[in-house]
Amino acid sequence: MAEQRGPSLSTKTTVRYALGSLGTGGFATLPGLVLVYYLTDTLGIAALAAGAVVTLAKVWDVVIDPVIGGLSDRALQTRGSRRAPMILGVIGLPFAFLATFSVPAGLPPAAAMAWVLIAFILAATFFSLFQVPYIALPAELTPSYSARTHLLTWRVVVLTAAILLFGGGGPEIRGLFSSPYLGYFVMALASALVIFIGIAAAITIVPKPNPEMTGSLPTGHRGVSRPVNPPLLDHYRNSWKALKGSQPFRALLATFVLQGLTTGLMLASAQFVARWILDDEGAVTLLFICLIGPALLVAPAWKSVAGRWGKERAFAIASVLFLAANLCSIPLAWAPGYWIVAPIVVAGAAYAGMQTLPLAMLPDVIAVDARTRTARAGVLGGVWTAGETAGMALGATVLTVVLALSGYVESSAGVTVVQPDSAVLGIALSFSAVPAALMILSLVTLGRYRLRKEDVEYA
Fold this sequence. Notes:
Keywords: Membrane, Transmembrane, Transmembrane helix. By secondary structure, this protein is an all-alpha fold. The chain has helices at 11-41, 47-79, 83-100, 109-141, 145-175, 180-202, 232-245, 247-277, 283-309, 311-329, 341-370, 377-405, 421-430, 433-446, 453-457.
């Protein structure tokens, strides 16, 4: 069957959409990499309390994402554009991100914890205002199966570049200053500027509101006008209906959440691996380059694999490759050393596929869903963002639980401590064996994904 052909995507649209991942990648990467370490080893906050800060902020994110998704759909239906919530995100996210890493020196741990919690919750809110509509855009920009893969491939190329930039460059900027407080502040300031540039560029491709649509009342399938302001609980009911009503969406989301949990755990563990296993805090930059460098190079190759074998099969291949890298990393617990670079490079090549392919599959799921139901791309995008956020957040939470159970000793800036062997073992397993177990579960859920190219192209 011939592929559906819609209006082609211009280079300008592709580039500007992809640049949005400078912001989303930066916000997802840097806090995931250094925030727990900032809380435990600079602000002197206990590991479980540090985990609670990250988890509470992300739980809030999960709570508001379905609401933002519903409001985004409503804005599209009544005004012809998702632009308004995205503008709020563009304005607020850089300031809230900077505030998260701007705790004044000498503030007591309890007050410092409250400061970071409030700032990070605000940052998560502004991030969702941008991210949820941003995820919904590809299904609206083109109806073409292959064009979406092309668009999302370049988004992931920029995303991986952003992860490399923030994950590698952030700790390097921090290390330029003798004061950890000043180092984190300058790191956050530079990062906030790059985040703003990326998300401000992406918003330029979003249609402006159509004055002729303002105040209109869209009609459902049965001809009943919807209320102008749906009750808050309706957003959650609609999200549940969307999740319940699409089996491909459930399978894809479950897989992505489990893999987000995997990468979130490894991301949060990397700084601890560098400090307590490789005995070099700066080695986190090397770990990041080894992980993201290959991903940046091979991301377009996964597009070719998907074209030959299908997106879902290519996704499975990438996941198995990542699992193999996790299994090869397990000896790190008993034989620490820079040999770990080799499996990390393999994981990096697989990681590109694990990002490109599900993000390219999501617009297909949304498009198929829209054929039989009222358009709800924003609702599905909100549920997706909530799941992605939960996965990444729980990764940091799992790490803090392991640290607490294994006897990890927190410290304030300038204070030297010695970690027990049990804590070092816990760090190593958090970077290898636990992620491997999560990847096995993700392969089970991916096996339940039933949507194929012919299903997407069928009109």
